[in-house]
Amino acid sequence: MSSEDLRSTRLDKVAQLQALGLNPYAYRWEVTHHAAELQQQYAELPNGEEVEIEVAIAGRIMARRVFGKLAFFTLQDETGTIQLYLDKGKIEASMPEVENAFAHLKQLTDAGDILGVKGNLRRTDKGELSVGVSQYQILTKSLLPLPDKWHGLTDVEKRYRQRYVDLIVNPEVQQTFRRRALITAAIRRLLSEKNFIEIETPVLQTEAGGADARPFITHHNTLEMDLYLRIATELHLKRLIVGGFERVFEMGRIFRNEGISTRHNPEFTSIEVYQAYGDYLDMMDLTEELITVPAQEVLGTLQISYQGEAIDLTRPWRRITMHDLVKEHTGLDFTQFTSVEEAKTAAKAAGIHGIDEIQSIGKLLNEAFEQKVETTLIQPTFVTDYPVEISPLAKPHRSKPGLVERFELFIVGRETANGFSELTDPIDQRDRLEAQAARKAAGDLEANSVDEDFLTALEYGMPPTVGMGMGIDRLVMLLCDCASIRDAVAFPLLKPETPES
RNA sequence: GGGUGACUGGCGCAAUGGUAGCGCAUCGGACUCUUAAUCCGCUGGUUCUGGGUUCGAGUCCCAGGUCACCCA
Q: Does any strand B atom come closer than 7 Å to the Cβ of A68?
């Protein structure tokens, strides 16, 4: 039967229900119980026993096993499933106002329909906890067939494009998004307990700043100007620190006009946290808490498994400088190089490629780190003390020339968080942002213009501050064991199936 | 950006270059303890799109689309 035939069969049933005066799109159903709660509460009910308590539940019919005068449905609500025991005699005695109530149930319902039922609880002789239904109402008639009840929906493309179908037939998918909500709630609660407040900053901006990334451009009609979607929340949150807030954060959507992969979605959720009067050492402590507290709450353990790899989140996490890590993995001591050429020659000899155009020792160090070290950092590791060349918003290191007080957190070989003692010297900041603007003028699409108002704010004076940004999607991937960011995002961006042109 | 692979009824899958088939669901029938219910019967397809090779293409070739994985 074709898709259209299946649908028109269901539409016929809609018409039949309407002709019978049974609205196939009901208004409400008083739900008193949920499946999982009943399964747990009556786990000890013996086979063949019934309890004289009336329950009213609602959910989607997932399976139908129909006999002549008896039927069993599997009903799925948000919490799980429970069987319905549908006895012709009992239903027709309890629903005298509807003629042939049992026949309608058999003929006019399908797997996929939303059903509300009332009845009492019983455990069948075969041991299945069931609602012995006395009354039912078809709450919503479904027009489209569900995927195969046994094999389910496995086509990943369809799972992402039609997440609602994925959620209906793959209940474990629901768990990821439930956990995601618990993780973000735990983070917000923890920060609130530490007197951080969340302040929302603009998504539409006249300058995209705070990170090296290509922005999305949109257009405001009445102002007749292009606007950028934010690529970071950094510069506005720092303005709030200038304004006198000492502890602020924002968890929200960021947009970067870049590639799509198992680790990148064009829109993603970040949290940025700023704390006045602290430095990057303080923030490493807080970062550990911001991951371990949700992990412990949501998973109940700090010993987690990611794609088959055992990860130990027990604090404290290893802290090691970028220089030491590169030395450990390549034998190269970048502190010893006195010229770019010397560093480049040594790096090439160590097997680091694609560095011909690079014109600074710090960037060579970073290349060596990314190529030789990054993916080896499986257990949580804070990499510290980055080159100033790749850290335009970070404060110079108090004792190491050429470096800044910055850390990045790596887990399972992925950058998960990034923090630094914030640069508070407005003159130094202007120099660095202007250098970046020069790169933009020279054609670097990831470089951005100078945000003059941000520099003005810094000139009013920002207290010593530490800031940190963390990718929430990647944290969810880690804690929910998702191989792809698309499994951690309810509705990931996909190309349209049928392009216009 | 490069490479590899996948794409066939609603869903899950078959088919040496030779009649497009199976399971589930649907539809009709039987059935008061099933749970992938069972039994009987019947439907349902522009094989992702467009070209090409061939007597003949789901299958081979070219181009395009979407997705997945790997690499940069």
A: yes
